[in-house]
Design goal:
mainly beta, 7-stranded antiparallel beta sheet, 46 strands, elongated
Length: about 500
């Protein structure tokens, strides 16, 4: 390798211009940190083609981005004088009587192409020696996605990354396997066979890592942002239970802050979402939004609007929206037709009625009666016959009671939030589901009544099998704060 294009001289190097050529050490491929037994050696010539003695040669390493986050770029090749064991990104040497200069090479820590820029400042000569740096020994295995969801009968592909001590990627192939029958594994493809949570292991030699898979039923969820601090965006989002088709439906009139809610309720045809939005005086109003267009409007006509309208719940036949009002600090049951007409009071009594949900046959509503009007309060479960207004007390302390689609059960969260409970409307047959996790926010049934959905921990959407009590969380990271008040699309 040479610089310049001089004519031939006694050395065999073209003459007419100063020149430089690589004698040894260029083009090497080796692993990170490897010190090369052969020095990088160059020879410089004057315009007559004779060796240049006592001339300074500069050796400068090229750089590459570090594989470790937040670290500055790294020298691709480190350099040291032949008389030194100290390596750096720059070194010089003076040519000997034969015009030769050398530096010792040590491969850098970033796998990939490397280079050393060699220059003779006195004559303006520059050339580049190129190298290949290979990754080092395997020290870490990571699997991605680490936690994901797939539908029953669907597939997902996992990726395994084998890294050396500097974070460089190796080409080792991982072997994936699982010991549970709810998933099957073929190569890196995982298939969902039955509802539940599964662990898939990846192994490369002595290294291993695992991925968590939630196998869930098909379904589409609407949920509001879980507010955790001032500045969080309050909105309603919709997504499929495997995390796909994620989109924002509508943003609150008060889009950021540390108060307020937007609990969504699907229309019976799945084309609209009912919700309450917030006002700056901490009262709420009922709205409806078209899911396809995002166009929203107040549900109740101006002449019938209440000072406070909150916590909507739809009747199974799609005719009514039950909600709470009529003013801040009170909580009685009202309802309005889904076209915004026919507002009427349903509840009565001096103590607040909370968490209303209508039975599938439309004959009754379940709710909790509490001494506190705030929605997060637990209260005594009551069932009101809508025709007679007769009230039956079930003598259970509940939050957010929701009738099953068949009407056979009422699901609720108790005052501790531990798991989800289901009970018959007469108070018999009660049992706890998903008892090892704590639910926070509303719950809802799947349209077929086989599953429930709620949120646990920091707003993680979680599906629960209503028969077995097994649960499967769904990690959706598009909203970092998580979700509340999930509603299952009919």
């Amino acid at each position: 390798m040479s610089c310049g294009d001089p004519g031939a001289g006694s050395t065999g190097v073209p003459t007419g211009k100063p020149a430089m050529k690589f004698v040894a050490g260029s083009g090497v491929a080796d692993t990170v940190d490897a010190v090369q037994p052969q020095a990088l050696t160059v020879q410089a010539f004057d315009p007559a083609g004779k060796p240049l003695p006592s001339t300074v040669i500069r050796f400068t390493s090229g750089t590459a981005p570090s594989k470790i986050p937040y670290e500055p770029p790294k020298a691709t090749v480190l350099l040291a004088k032949v008389t030194s064991a100290v390596f750096a990104s720059f070194a010089t040497d003076s040519t000997n009587a034969s015009g030769i200069a050398s530096v010792v090479l040590k491969m850098g820590t970033v796998a990939g192409p490397g280079m050393v820029i060699v220059s003779v400042p006195l004559y303006g000569l520059v050339d580049t020696a190129r190298f290949t740096i290979r990754s080092g020994g395997a020290v870490r295995l990571t699997v991605a996605p680490h936690d994901t969801a797939i539908f029953i009968g669907a597939n997902a592909s996992l990726r395994a990354s084998v890294l050396d001590r500097y974070g460089n990627l190796r080409t080792d192939a991982a072997v994936f396997s699982s010991s549970v029958s709810r998933v099957s594994v073929s190569g890196q493809v995982v298939s969902g066979a039955a509802f539940g949570r599964a662990t898939v292991m990846a192994r490369v030699g002595a290294l291993s890592d695992s991925a968590l898979i939630s196998v869930v039923p098909r379904g589409t969820i609407a949920a509001q942002t879980a507010l955790t601090s001032t500045g969080d965006l309050l909105a309603i989002w919709a997504f499929d239970l495997d995390g796909s088709n994620f989109r924002r439906i509508v943003t609150s009139a008060i889009p950021s802050g540390y108060f307020g809610e937007m609990p969504p309720v699907w229309s019976v045809d799945g084309k609209s979402i009912f919700y309450h939005d917030n006002k700056y005086d901490h009262t709420r109003s009922l709205w409806v939004v078209d899911v396809a267009t995002g166009v929203q409007k107040r549900l109740i006509a101006p002449e019938s609007q209440l000072a406070d309208e909150r916590w909507p719940a739809r009747s199974a036949d799609g005719q009514w929206i039950y909600f709470h009002g009529p003013s801040y600090g009170t909580s009685q049951i009202y309802r309005v037709r889904t076209n915004g007409t026919g507002v009427e009071a349903v509840g009565s009594g001096s103590t607040p009625q909370l968490h209303t949900h209508a039975s599938p046959d439309g004959a009754s509503v379940a709710y909790s009666r509490s001494s506190d009007w705030w929605y997060s309060s637990a209260g005594l479960l009551e069932i009101m016959n809508l025709a007679t207004r007769a009230v039956t007390q079930v003598h259970l302390t509940v939050q957010r009671p929701v009738w099953s689609p068949s009407g056979a059960y009422i699901a609720y969260v108790d005052e501790t939030g531990a798991g989800i409970w289901i009970v018959r409307p007469d108070g018999s047959g009660g049992r706890q589901l998903a008892s090892t996790v704590t639910f926070d926010g509303g719950i809802d049934w799947s349209p077929d009544g086989k599953y429930l959905v709620g949120t646990i921990g920091s707003g993680t959407i979680t599906v629960v099998d209503a028969e077995t009590g097994e649960f499967a969380p769904v990690k959706i990271t598009a909203v970092s704060t998580g979700f509340r008040a999930p509603s299952w699309k009919p």
